[in-house]
Structures are given as C-alpha cells and as structure tokens.
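Our consortium's second objective concerns turning raw sequence data into structural hypotheses that experimental partners can test. To show how far this objective has progressed, the report includes one record in full. It was chosen at random from the queue rather than selected for favorable results. The single chain below, 199 residues long, was entered without modification.
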Amino acid sequence: MKIDKLSTKFFIFGNLEIPVPAKKLVPGIKLYIAGPLGFAEATRPFHQSIIKLVRIMGGEPIDAWALTPKEETDRVNKMSPGRRQEKAYKKVNEKIFKKSIRALDEVMGVIAVLDGPDVDSGTAAEIGYAAGRLIPIIGYRGDFRIASDNIGTPVNLMIAGFIHNSGGLIIRHISDLPNALLAIWGNNANSAQTVGKAR
C-alpha cells in the first residue's frame, strides 16, 4: 500500500498503528457502517474503531447498530418465550428494517465488514440494496478463511460483483481503509492512491 506522504498521525486500531493521511473526505459525507461485529462483545470494539476512523477522516459514520436503541431489543429479549414475545419481535424487526433502509437511502457510501465463515446475510442484503442504488461500497475482509466460490474472489462472487459494480472495492487489510476511503470519497478521488490488491 502506498502511504500518503502527508500522513501526520497514526490511529490506534486494536493492536495496530495505522497511518492516517492529512487529506480528508468530502465534507459532510455520510457513510453507512455495515457488518456483524455488533453481535458479539469481543468484536464491538473493532466496529467502534471503524466508526472513529471515519470521523477522524472527516466523514459522518452512520452506525447500523445504533439506529435502533439497544434498550428496545433488550426489552424484547427479556420477555418470556411465547406469542407476546413473537409479536414484540415482529414490531422491532420491522422498525430495524425500515430504519436501515431509510439510512441507506440517505448515505453516499457503505463500509461493509465481510468477515465470518460466510458473509453475514444481513450485511449481504445491505450490500445488494446499496449496489442497486449505485452507492459505492468498500468491503473489508481480514478473515483468512476461505469463504468464496473459487480463488478468483475473496467472498461470494455475487457479493464481490455488487461491490465492484457499485464503484467500490474489497480490501484485505484494515490499514488500507484510510486510502480506500480517499480513493472513493476524497476531495480528489480521481487521483486516488493505490490501495489493497484484492479488488
């Protein structure tokens, strides 16, 4: 990866130190952060680090996991199993779906985490919806497990195709994210830096 010569600071990403270019994203750009990392306590800090990095670079992250207050889902989770809980889940599910679609309609880009034995089904749906609206997508897969149809793609070929057709790309190292962001949504995106080779 070619590092921007104007890099003046580093961002601590877990146990990694990532160079952050001095260049910023287009002012006010909203980026939807998709992925399954919010499900587990162990992976939530990584999800939050992506959000912080987008903010540092001047973007406005839209956290898919924050669209519906956790208290709402916790309340339903604590209900006794039965028809009442099922009815409550249906209401919460519809609310989550509608808020996610509304958010995707308002953003200019998506950052999707593709880790896992297979790409998370909800994330795949968000990718398909965004691609259908020609919203550029950056897919990140740092997971070394094979989760694709063949060696020609790091993930399911349809998901990879949606990402590439959106004008986006897939990166394999989180340290490539700053320059990938600049390549697509920087003030001078047409003269973008070299990013990961996994596109």
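The partners drew two points from this record. Helices lie at 44-56, 70-77, 83-106, 121-132, 157-165, 177-185. Strands lie at 9-13, 16-20, 30-34, 60-63, 109-113, 137-140, 169-171. Both points have been shared with the crystallography group to help prioritize constructs.
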